[in-house]
Amino acid sequence: MHWLRKVQGLCTLWGTQMSSRTLYINSRQLVSLQWGHQEVPAKFNFASDVLDHWADMEKAGKRLPSPALWWVNGKGKELMWNFRELSENSQQAANVLSGACGLQRGDRVAVVLPRVPE
């Protein structure tokens, strides 16, 4: 419950009010949060399970395009990609890795890049 107090404190600083419904969590989820244990699926792919899901919702018109990535450089220049655009960029990167690099499904890769969206 310490985390709930911290969130309530932040809401007070931001001048917003929290209702008891704002953070409704069932008891099983609460126990997981308290002990730091999260249920982890046997196989999880962030790009397909999360990014593509939201991109498909945008494509189908079930959700308005909203920022999935919003980057601002030191000079105030902004770059904003919605989920569909980020999904397309992710697929392009995967195509480069599978084509030029010869990687196949199931191969694991670690990529270290600077903190820029390109």
From TrEMBL:
Highest taxon of the lineage: Eukaryota
Q: What does the UniProt keyword field contain?
A: ATP-binding, Fatty acid metabolism, Ligase, Lipid metabolism, Magnesium, Nucleotide-binding
GO MF annotation terms: ATP binding; ligase activity, forming carbon-sulfur bonds
Q: Which InterPro entries match?
A: ANL_N_sf (IPR042099), Mitochondrial_ACSM (IPR051087)
GO BP term, example: fatty acid metabolic process
Supply the PANTHER family for this chain: ACYL-COENZYME A SYNTHETASE (PTHR43605), ACYL-COENZYME A SYNTHETASE ACSM2A, MITOCHONDRIAL (PTHR43605:SF14)
The Swiss-Prot or TrEMBL record describes its family as follows: Belongs to the ATP-dependent AMP-binding enzyme family.
Q: What is this protein called?
A: Acyl-CoA synthetase medium chain family member 2A
Q: Organism source for this protein?
A: Homo sapiens
Q: What is the primary gene name for this protein? A: ACSM2A
